Amino acid sequence: MHYLIGDLQGCCDAFERLLAEIGFSPSRDSLTVLGDLVNRGPQSLAVLKRVRGLGSAADALLGNHDLHLLAVAHGVRPTHASDTLGEILDSPERDAWLEWLCARPLALERHGWLCVHAGVNPAWTSFQTLALAAEVEALLRGPDLATFLPQMYGNEPARWSDALQGAARWRHVINVLTRIRFVHAEDGALDFKLKESAAAAPPGLVPWFEAPHRASANSRIAFGHWSTLGLINRADLLALDTGCVWGGSLTAVRVDGGRREVVQVRCEQARSATG
To answer: What is the predicted pLDDT for the residue at 100?
Structure first.
């Protein structure tokens, strides 16, 4: 059985309860966590240990909080008041954990589902999404990581073009795969001003998955990141960040063998709405 699991964000106790609820066995089952393993919850290091400890039975995507950890560790970004990364940064195995994180993918396919942390540019096919993710993954795993990390921050370019090169190209790819929520319906340009639920979108903005003429419309896509959406469980779309760190739920969905099974556990609130 293969399960897709929403954002953990340092909530290891909830993760343990979810694994127990589904009766997870690494010798029989497998799982993919859709990014944001760490931060804001109280047990970021424990989450890394648990996921890595599952070995080949577990995949994990990189999310925006995981990239933030890499940037903080390399002195590129300061810590935020809401960060809970100290255990990892102070760990004797710090370098090993950072290396392990850098080896995580930004996108992958599992059992017919394209898995990403935040979303897909409306102009991209599933094949293109995986190819572009691989470009950035090579940078994260390469010798120039410290040079690359400062260049990944910023909201521009907002519009995709196949002609984009270098830092602008890779920044856009990262912003899509780890940060996207709304896009402009007219041209697919990214908008990062709004973080509320899809119903809050002003005229002209739509959730990325509702963009007209989306090139990946015939693909099944699973993502996390957007907790205010709540659970979306459509034939072609799974939104699985159900706000565990905010006192919501942690969600797993079984996706193998043509069977869809949703399993949730309630979470203790680790952060306030302003934290």
So the answer is: 98
Q: For residue 273, is pLDDT > 80? A: no
Could you tell me the two tokens for 254?
């079984």
Model pLDDT for residues 202-227, shown as the tens digit of each residue: 999 999 999 999 999 999 999 999 99
d(C-alpha 80, C-alpha 138), whole Å? 28
How do the domains of the chain map onto residue ranges?
A: 2-266
Q: Strand order of the sheet with strand 205-207?
A: 190-191, 182-184, 205-207
Model-level pTM greater than 0.85? yes
Does the domain at 2-266 match CATH 3.60.21.10? Answer given as yes
Tens digit of each residue's pLDDT (9 = 90 or more) over 6-59: 999 999 999 999 999 999 999 999 999 999 999 999 999 999 999 999 999 999
Tokens describing residue 270: 């680790």
Residue spans of alpha helices (H) in the chain: 12-22, 44-53, 64-73, 86-89, 94-102, 126-140, 145-148, 166-179
CB 9 within 8 A of CB 39: yes
113: β partners:
110, 220
**CA–CA separation, 3 vs 32, rounded Å?**
6
